Amino acid sequence: MIKYSLICAEKHRFDSWFASAAGFDSLKAAGMVSCAVCGSTSVEKAIMAPSVRSGEPAAEPAATPQHPLSEPSSPVERALAELRRHVEATSDYVGGDFARMAREMHNGEAPERAIRGEADLQQARSLLEDGVPITPLPFMTSRRTS
What we know:
By secondary structure, the protein is of the alpha+beta class. Among the domains are: 2-45, no CATH class; 75-129, no CATH class. The protein is built from 4 helices and 5 strands. The protein has helices spanning 21-29, 75-90, 98-106, 121-129, and strands at 2-8, 13-18, 43-45, 92-95, 115-117. The strands form 2 sheets. Strands 2-1-3 form a 3-stranded antiparallel sheet. Strands 4-5 form a two-stranded parallel ribbon. Helix 3 (98-106) links the parallel strand 4 and strand 5 (115-117). The longest helix is centred in the middle third of the chain and has 16 residues, at 75-90.
């Protein structure tokens, strides 16, 4: 196991463990490494001090309040976490079929329902130009359906 200090494009810093250096590289290449704060997949390794062990027993670290990355730490993060929970609970994940399904619902070819999924920039632009109401989410959602 290896622990990396990471930083996203928005300058959020966080730590994460990986099976190996190659494991980090393959997960990052697959877009599976995301910021613990904003969900951005534009994440890089940050500069970190090496962990060097001496022959002496390690001193107990000073008691500093630690906040688990799995929990929001600010009012904005809590609001985004609540929004994410609401979106995931009230919509269906449709993956790469998002653009097609959104267009079919807009054209009356499919029953309307709340959906979430992925669309590339060209697909999103085309939907917006055609008046299909879509919006990007400020976070990554779960890929499972509700």
